[in-house]
Design a protein that fits this description.
Elements lengths: L1 H33 L24 H24 L5 H25 L4 H29 L4
Helix pairs in contact: 1-2, 1-4, 2-3, 3-4
Bound molecules: protoporphyrin IX containing FE.
Length: 149
């Protein structure tokens, strides 16, 4: 029973962290788009600076990628813990795990096609969909805290 509560608490914390990270990565992505820096880093998966500190030219584009990878890790961890539970929370967390992987591949195509309009639009909508999934996971796991065992 204590293990079960701990598991729910982990899902609450991880899904909240996913929400915060998704918000951040979407904010940076929109900034990159609005300031026309989408093509500032033409390489994939790393920018030309490799693992060194990026120059100002593509600083935000590189931060967008780094935060995206960290976000994916947290979304996967949420899915891992939620997979042991049942109900809507399990479904949304696992779906988010799959969609975040798709989103990273979409990001690669956005760069490789030099900002194909349809792909950029799909990348934006998928980000919104991911945020919705993380929000449902958070709300449904949070509600479990107060349910009597
Ligand atoms: C969790 C993963 C990710 C999320 C949630 C995400 C979300 C977003 C969002 C919301 C935008 C703004 C789109 C717009 O305003 O039209 C954006 C832009 C962009 N993203 Fe991502 N992104 C993710 C991962 C990646 C990755 C791994 C790459 C790989 C390079 C990438 C490349 C880009 C680029 C180049 C833009 C700018 C597009 C433009 O200038 O029109 N994204 N992203």
């Amino acid at each position: 029973m204590v293990d079960d509560r701990m598991n729910v608490m982990r899902i609450v914390c991880l899904s909240f962290a996913s929400l915060a990270l998704l918000f951040t990565v979407m904010l940076i992505g929109t900034y990159v788009d609005a300031s026309h820096q989408g093509l500032s880093c033409p390489a994939w998966p790393l920018c030309p600076n490799g693992f060194n500190f990026p120059p100002k030219k593509y600083l935000f584009e590189e931060i967008h990628r780094i935060v995206a990878v960290i976000t994916a890790g947290v979304v996967f961890a949420t899915a891992g813990y939620a997979a042991k539970k049942s109900g809507i929370m399990r479904k949304t967390a696992i779906t988010a795990g799959i969609i975040v992987a798709v989103q990273i591949v979409l990001g690669m195509f956005v760069v490789n096609t030099k900002l194909n309009a349809l792909l950029v639009a799909t990348h934006l909508s998928t980000g919104v969909f991911l945020f919705a999934l993380a929000l449902i996971t958070f709300v449904s796991s949070y509600r479990l805290i107060n349910t009597k065992p």
